[in-house]
Amino acid sequence: MPKLVILGSANAVPDLMHENTHMALVGQEQSVLIDCVGNPLLRFQQAGIEVNHLTDIILTHFHPDHVSGVPSFLMNTWLLGRKRQIDIHGLGYVVERMEKILEFFDWTNWPKMYPVRFHPLSDQEMVTILETSEYRILSSLVHHLIPTIGLRVEFPQSGKVLAYSCDTEPCEEVVRLAADADVLLHEASGETIGHTSAAQAGKIATQARAKALYLIHYPTQEGKLQELVNEARTMYDGPVALAEDFLELSF
Ligand SMILES: [Zn+2]
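Above: query sequence and zinc ion SMILES. Below: predicted holo structure tokens.
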């Protein structure tokens, strides 16, 4: 059964228990990393995910708390002897900038580096990024400070749906991504430009008729995590929980 493993749940400032937000979608055939930050190799080891099983990386937007782990992750897996190709998906400007960063590391001269392919995504709504027999991943632009995608993942075998807001203000695009979803994973950084509060995330979950809400990309520094859950509950009647690091959700 495919599962989503939360590898990090903090906003842009991590702490010892919460890495920056990123996650892995683990299937029988292949796994997909959604954002790549901190040291994903260690996270994979801690979560017991086979790193050679990973085939794709989706980069949601080009902020350091979402993409800064790519060069070290590629280098680590190359040094471990990886042969299998990795496909990196992101909006045009994201994959372009990532290629430039890798050029600074002179990566084309790493001996026997495995193939990496970049796939620029369209900025249209509900674009299919990737489809396997286990899941279909769709993206839409959301409302962050820079062009950013949110995701909808449909699991044909169970009929279940997962939606992930990524970093965004409350917006209709997320309501549509999360329409009737079994799980909405929504950011709760706070009510500031380009972000969402926990209460606003609750309102989005209600509007989307999502069956469960998990808060992610939340501030960890103030130690008020339970208050975020309570805040979301004021706007949403369904189950609300924090997405903590290493949480697994099966689909
Ligand atoms: Zn962020």
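The helical segments are 40-47, 64-67, 70-79, 92-104, 172-177, 198-208, 225-233.
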